[in-house]
Design brief:
With 278 residues, the protein is an alpha/beta fold. The protein has helices at 6-9, 26-43, 69-83, 94-101, 117-125, 143-151, 178-183, 215-225, 254-272; strands at 15-19, 47-50, 87-90, 106-109, 130-133, 158-162, 165-166, 172-173, 189-192, 229-235, 249-250. Helix 2 packs parallel to helix 9 (254-272).
């Protein structure tokens, strides 16, 4: 399988971004990538492998913070080379961006850093598409200013991922009206169905750290609303995931969830004429 052209993804039908929250081993990467390849083939959609080499925004010092830049990029390069999947990861520091940009097809900006000017400039300067995750503390309209920081550097390949807004202490809610606001100034708009059900006040391994049973419902709603892509953090054995175990979607159940999103999204596009992307 050849890697997809990301500019083509930005103009094509529904797509999937999925993978482990944190890269942990070559074996898990291979297991996940094999399933993603099957989904890409069976559903005839673009699929991007996502895995974080660093989890710099973990709450607790003793939490798993990732394999690090060097080993993480090695694993992402392996997935790209051996499975033909485009790859993405989040960058947290300006110094990481240039080496990460040599491997990544899509540079992801974490939600907590979505307003960081220096990081956005560095990501833009890679020339790669930049996927900014909307902060859970910011309005959809205000994401325009983050997009401007990328386009000001001459890079207009900006994607936005919605992951809900904080409502009270630790609870996250999703307002699907953000889609209309974001479409005015960004390219593909993606829905993160896993972080949208995460309870920020709980540890990620806490069984009460999220409501993964709500993921299919929100994914269906996102497809019906007209989101272009679905973002999911998945794991072969969610309870053993070193990061966001409470909301990681089971890898074995991913094909059916992806099929449901794609079929609804295609139907909505056919009957309502989904808005054209930039």
């Amino acid at each position: 399988m050849e890697a997809y052209n990301l500019d083509l993804i930005a103009r094509s039908g529904p797509f999937l971004i999925a993978g482990p929250c944190a890269l942990e081993s070559e074996a898990v990467c291979r297991e996940v990538a094999a399933v993603l390849c099957d989904i890409a083939r069976d559903l005839q959609i673009p699929v991007i492998f996502k895995g974080s080499y660093s989890k710099a925004n973990r709450t607790h010092e003793e939490a798993f913070h990732g394999l690090g830049l060097e080993r993480g990029l090695e694993l992402l390069a392996l997935v790209r080379r051996e499975f033909g999947l485009p790859v993405t990861s989040d960058v947290h520091e300006i110094r990481e961006v240039a080496p990460a940009g040599e491997v990544l097809d899509l540079v992801q900006i974490p939600s907590l850093l979505c307003k960081n000017t220096g990081l956005l400039h560095a990501a833009a300067d890679t020339g790669k598409p930049v996927n900014i995750k909307k902060g859970q503390f910011i309005t959809a309209a205000d994401m325009r200013w983050s997009v401007d920081k990328v386009t000001a550097r001459g890079n207009r390949r900006v994607w936005i991922t919605e992951r809900g807004n904080l409502f009270g202490y630790g609870e996250t809610v999703v307002d699907f009206r953000v889609l209309n606001a974001i479409r005015d100034f960004a390219g593909p708009v993606i829905f993160d169905a896993t972080h949208s059900v995460r309870h920020a006040a709980r540890r990620s391994a806490d069984p009460e750290g999220g409501t993964p049973q709500d993921i299919p419902l929100l994914a269906r709603c996102a497809a019906a609303a007209g989101f272009d892509g679905l973002f999911l953090e998945v794991h072969p054995r969610p309870g053993q995931a070193p990061c966001d175990a409470a909301v990681a979607w089971p890898l074995a159940d991913l094909p059916e969830l992806a099929r449901c999103f794609v079929e609804i999204r295609r139907f909505v596009g056919a009957v309502s004429g989904a808005p054209e992307r930039r």
